[in-house]
Amino acid sequence: GAVVSQHPSWVICKSGTSVKIECRSLDFQATTMFWYRQFPKQSLMLMATSNEGSKATYEQGVEKDKFLINHASLTLSTLTVTSAHPEDSSFYICSARDTAGWGNEQFFGPGTRLTVL
Amino acid sequence: QKEVEQDPGPLSVPEGAIVSLNCTYSNSAFQYFMWYRQYSRKGPELLMYTYSSGNKEDGRFTAQVDKSSKYISLFIRDSQPSDSATYLCAMSSNSGYALNFGKGTSLLVTP
Fold it and tell me: Do B101 and A44 touch (CB under 8 A)?
């Protein structure tokens, strides 16, 4: 149980284009999902907290108009990187908190590697 | 001062050794403590989860939390080459809150 999937697992795009990344909780409902970014040999940096049916909460320094988050259902959150540039190239990882779970366990997806040319 | 401090290593041990991984933190409000294992180019995998102080054991893994010292540990017994990965500690103050991660410790278990 507690499986989180991400799609795509990797994507290469041209500068200026938009990329959408999906995060799904496969066997549980997730009221809250989180989006992280991780650069090589660095820890995870929280970008935003996504709550089902409401606007995402962004961390300081993260442009909400550039990183659009939609959490339309209890099993799906999407992150759209708009007008991507090479500096947006990174490993994007989502996590989901089990609504029915005890405490604050978060389960992570396998990540999406984004390369912007 | 960062809220969660973790030695990045790398830590290299021979197969079968006992591994000790640690994190310190500064926020006394943290109550939920987790250890994740992350293989290269993969998402983190939840290993251990504890609430408040105390010990928790699961197979070869033991997690300890000492809130009075703001110090948490993960012990791996009979380490295996497959344990080679980066280990991240994470913690939060309340249920549903985002996690605060350490930088991760890179572990290499040599045959």
Answer: yes
